[in-house]
Structures are given as structure tokens and as C-alpha cells.
Amino acid sequence: MRRRTQKRRVHSERGVAIVIAIFTLMLISVVATAMILMSGTDSAIKSNYKSAMHAFYDAKAGLEEGRGRLFWPNPNIPNPVASCVFPTPGAVMPVTRVCYIVNPSDVNPLDLSASNPYADFEYKQEWGIAVTDASLQVQQPFITSTSVIPNAGVGGTDIAGPLYKWVRITPRTQTSAKLAGDVTDTNPLFYNGVQQLASSGGNPVPNAVQVLTITALAVTPYGSRRMVQYTVAVSPLATALPTFPSALTLDGNGVSFTGPNAGNGNGNGNGGGPGSFQINGKDSSAGPSGSSGVPAIGYTNSDDGPSISTAAVPSGNYLSPGGTPNVAFLPPSTPQTPNGLPPVLQTPSGLDSLVQNITQAADLVITPSSGTADQTSLPSGMSAANPMVVVVNGNFNLHGNGTGYGLLLVTGTLDYDPDASWNGVILVIGKGIFVSTKSGIGTITGAVFVAQTHDASGNLLSDPSLMRSSFTQKGGKGIQYSSSWVAATQALLPYQVLSFREIPQATP
Amino acid sequence: MKKRNISASGFSLVELLVGTVLFTIITGAVFSLLMSAQLRYSGESNVTEAFQQANVAIDQIVRDVHSAGYPPKTSLPLNTSSDFYALPFAWSPNYAGIPCTAGPGGSCTIPGDSDLIVEADTGSGVKWIRYSLQNGTLMRGVATKSGTDPVGSTNANLAPYLDNVINPTSVPVFSYRFDSALPQPTSPPPPPVSLIREVNITLMVRSALPDPQTHQFRTIMLTGQATRFNPNQ
Hints:
Oligomer: heterodimer
Radius of gyration of chain A: 32 Å
């Protein structure tokens, strides 16, 4: 009887156990939920930020792909982007033309339906007409992105590129820019190295280049959208110095030129061949006749002519094509002398912007910790078939017996031992000092440009009249102008960025 | 009748007391845990909120600096009024004469350790966008660029943007990296504002309320780096 009573009592307590269990579980659940919510909020914040940043850099990668693919130094490989942008080689991009790079290939920016997250509504904001307007030359099929590298990953997988969706390349006009000036003007804008210029359809001044607009949209899988835009133009060096005005150009006022004492390049007497030194403006690329070329030495302040001419002796060491003076004054570009020295080369700030642009495009930027680097810092892969852009942010000793290829920009003092050679262009812009006191058998083939833009303390000169430059070479075989090496060097520099902006999107 | 008596028999007094004590102990432990979790949640929420607000502030500053200097003077016709183009950063004193020098030892009061004025067109004309730390609050003010007084123009529009910023003097909100094409001398002179390339942002933010458990304010420090993408002018 007692056992039966106990059994029934246990039986009657079963419900209590469940209630207690549920209640306990509920409390634990509340605690757990609070903790999950807390960490979830934190994760969501970080995730949103990451997604937004991802979208921004994806879009910027699209801009860079568009800018990079406009520039195509190898003429033997077809360039679909340049072919689309410039349907007539050598002519400007028509203002009605629109080129897209899409990523992936099924993205369609022309589908302006509300359901298409990649629709290009921005074109209408800039141009006032929809991108589907019949008056436009939208090139189809679209160019596909090269961001994804097939079969290049581990195990033959594809390497995924950035998740931008499309890149649009258009010309730039005052209408599309919607800035100051005549915003109804639909003619293309040009850039002369200093300023964007309105036009009446063609190039308004010699050597100016057309301004293009590159726009990129990125949308991440989490819905973040960012749209960014560049305006770009051909590299500043190509704009400012398309052929180089002379084999050796001394830019500034009160410039200094010193040649070999004995006029034969013996330098300090330790080597070199008698009579071997020359600064030769005859174009070595034009064959042995030497019928074309540039002056041996060019200077930009007419008052400097006498001192340079006095130092540039014997005259047989300073050669120019027939009818061209060996030492020539390079006047500034004006309406009367449109082929003169471009504006960007006339001021310290213009030259400094040139340095900044070249630095951004450099294959190698050397910033010597000790203040001076030497030729051992040059990249080993540099060759005639693979010229490079090297910027030395300091002093540089170009010594040794080797040969460099491409563009060498030195912002400090360039100390040149003429046992070394350089094929391409040497720019000494900054301190503006080129010094070579030794003898040797090396040659600089291409062109040399020297300009001072900063004082000894590193401050940008405030006035062009303060610009000095100094060139001293007492030995070696000197400088041989070569239009082909100048052209090869120009081709190393991509389009420069003139401006950047982010275009606000509805769901950033 | 006997069966009903047995089934109706309740807990004994001892059983009830033991049950009550056990229930109280268990419930107390659970509630104690819950309370502790709630306090921690509350404390963490304060920190998370401060973190979120600081994050938003840094994101906005970075976006503004990205577009600083758009549109550049070079993109407009010659002799266009300066109201239509953007220098990357406005400065004080002597705007818009010769730029003052920024960074340690510089002559600028703006940009400085806790004050920055970005010039950019972010979609509605060129604006002065100012960030200024005032009495522990990071203020933001936007004014249309017009004339030569960016400080006065933005002063009227400054509004609280981020509260409880407690950067000490030794930790500036803004520090700068400059473009420089030349090797720096041993004692480099302060560079001009026009060469600012990167703005490093450091925000030390205190939670709005003290931590309920420790009764101490909690502090977070966020850093960001913003690069100006527009070229020098």
C-alpha cells in the first residue's frame, strides 16, 4: 500500500519537472538570445562596413582596369578598348560614343528596367539623354573584363577579380562635366598639361590631348553599391614632351652648362677617347644621314644663350641637323609660338605635377634611406625589350658598366659615371643637378631634361624665375638624341588621372 | 473514498520547504546569471553604439577626403571663379592666399590636430566640409564654397556629429602625410596644405554611459586612413 502511494506521488510530480525544465530553458534562452543579438549587431556593423569598402575598392579597380586598358604599349596585340574608344586611329573619340567593359559578361547596363540593379542611369544625369537613345553609338557586344584570370589559381581554378559590374568610357564635354563655363557646349574637352580646354571639335592647341571620362559601378553580393569616376588624359610626358625639343634641355633661368675641359671627353684624363664626347641632336633613329633631329642643347631663358654657347665648344662636339642651331632657345608656348615649351614645363608646380604623375606610374620608386642610391638598385629585369620607368626619390649614382633602359627620373642630384649607358630618357627634375666628372665610354641614347623645382631645403620654388638647373659632363661619349627611344619611353606611361570623384548612390 | 484520499494527499511541509529552497536557489542563480548578462549586454551596447557612431564618422570623413579637390582647377576654363573649383583642403589663416604650412611646427590653425576643412563637390556644387573637435564633440558643418572665409562659413552650420570624443592632446584626431618628391632634410620644414595626400584619423570615443558593472566609462579607439585621389593643383 505504501509503495503504491509513493508511486502515485511520483507520478503526480511529473508535470512539475516539465514546468521547471521549461522555465529554466526559457531563462537560458533569453540569456543566449541576448548574447547572440549583441554579437550579431557587432558583426552586422562590421559586415556593412566591409561590404561598403569592398564595393568602393571594386569600383576603383574597375576604373584602373579601364585606365590601364586604354593604354596599350604593345602595338602588335589588339586592344579592344582603344579600338572602341578611338574608332578612327589618330582621331578624337566622338562625343556620341559609349564604350563599356562588363564584368561578368552577362551584365547589361543598357537594360534600364527597374529590376536591373546594374542599369546605367548615371549617363542621363551627365548627358541629359538616356544611354539607350538612338543618337548614341553604344558599342556592342560589350568588352568583357580581364579581371578574372582563368585557370591560374591553385589546381587550375580561376582567380576571381574585383566585383565591379561595368566600366563606361566616354569623352568629356562641358555638358557632361556640368561644371563652370558653357554647360551647353558638347564639343570634346582637351588637356594641355595644365588646363582642360574647350574646343570646337578638334585639338585647340598643338600637343593637347583629349580628356576622357571613366565611370565604374560596383555592387557587392550584400547589396552595397558604389560608383566612382575618373577623368583621364594621355600621360603628361607625352603631352609635355612628345618628341623632346633637344638632346639636352636645360629648363629654367640662369642655367649652368659645363662640358669637357679639353673638349674631347677625356674628363679627368683616366680614360675615354679623344674627341669622343658629343651632344648630338641628329636623330640616330633616322639613319646615318642625320637629316632630322633636334638641337644639341636647348635652353628656355634667352639670356642664358651666350654662356651656354661659350661653354659648348668646340662646336664640332655639339651637333644638330642642317639648318638647326646647335644651341637653341626654346621659347614658351604662346599663340604666336604654339610649338614652344608647353606650360607644364614653365613652372615649378607644373613640373612637380609631372613628377608626381610619373611617380604614380613607375615600375620602381627608389627612396634611398641614406639619401643616395646607386645603379645596383635598378631592376634586374630591365632590358631593351623590357624598358622600365624608374623614379629615384633622392640622389642617384648611375655608375658601373651596365646599361639602363627606359625612363629614369631623379629628384635629387644625378651623379653619372659615363662608363654606364642609358637608352631612353633621363629626367633630372627636383634639385635639377646633373654632374659627371669622370671619363668613360658610355652613352646616353635618347634625351636628357634638367630642371630645378625645389630649393635646397626641399621647398617647392614659388616663382619660375628662381628655377636653376645645372649640367656638368666632363667625359664619356655624351648624349645621342634618338626619337625611337624617346617614343619607346613615352609608351611606358599610362593615362594620367586628372580628377576623381564618387557619385552618390541610393543604397551606399 | 480511500483512493481519493491518497490521490489528494499533498506534499509534506518538509517537501515543500526543501522544494521552495531549491527553487529559490536555482531561480536566484538563473536570475543572477541573467542580471549579469543584462548588465554586460547593457555595457557592451554602450560600447557598440560608440563604436558604430565612430565607425560612421570615420567612413564619412574617408569619403569626403577621397573626393577632396574635385573638381580641380585644371578641369575648368581659365579664369573661372575659385568658387567653382575645389582645392583639396581649405586652411586658416590667410585663405585663399599662400597656403599655410601644416603638421608639427606648421603655421596653420586649420588643418590642425582637431580641425579639418575638405573642399569637394559631392553632387551639389563645391562645398566646404568641416570637421572640428569642440569640447569633446566632433562637429561637422557643410557650407557652399563662396568667398574666402571657410571658417566663418562653416561655423554657422556646425552640428554635433560624434559625441564623447576624448582624444588627448598627444593623440590628434587628424594627422597628415604629404606628397614630397625630394628626400626630406634632417629638419624638414612643415609642408604646405596643398601637398596633403593622406589624412590619418584617430578617434578615441568614450561610451555614453558608464559600464553598469564596473561603473567606469569604457573607451574605444578607431583609426582610419583617407587618401586624396585627386592630383595636386
